[in-house]
Amino acid sequence: MNEKTLYTLSATALILSAGLYAAFSFADDDDDDHDYGKNNKYQIHITNNPSYQEECGACHIAYPSALLPARSWQKIMSGLSDHFGENAELEAATQAQLTEYLSTHSAEHDKSYLPQKLLRRLPSGQTPLRISELPYLRHEHKEIPVRMISNNPKVKSISQCNHCHTQADKGSFAEREINIPGVGRWDD
């Protein structure tokens, strides 16, 4: 084999290798580090307890239990006679069952990205009663002008997750799924 043929074969092999490497890299790229692709890091387990859906989902979104630590759910459930200004008392057996469910499916028990991020930012002595009080969520929403949330009659409050997070009922809070009513898609 002469030197020119060897050079041509080497160059061809190098080009083919680079092409195959690029093809396989793109084929496997599902953007694990972003909020799209098969591994959406903002996807959490939904609360699929029929009693919770019925009792709590009747007045507001049945918030995914993994959005709060167990200590928060326990405090919320023990104060239902004044649940943010409303009497939301339940029968004792139902209340006990829901408290147990929410506590065992809380942020500490969900190892996915978002609940763990919520917990890391929450001081251990703090027991938030509102999801909107979580430091991580406050940080994530601070860029959104007040006129788009509180002054927006179609949203009214940051606590109305499902008004802007179009897939909140499925447990997804990905940025690409945000659509603020009266404003449109949000992307910071």
UniProtKB/TrEMBL annotation:
InterPro entries for this protein: Dihaem_cytochrome-c
Secretion signal span: 1-22
Annotated Pfam families: DHC
Keyword annotations of the record: Signal
Protein's recorded name: Dihaem cytochrome c
Organism name: Candidatus Venteria ishoeyi
Phylogenetic classification of the source organism: Bacteria, Pseudomonadati, Pseudomonadota, Gammaproteobacteria, Thiotrichales
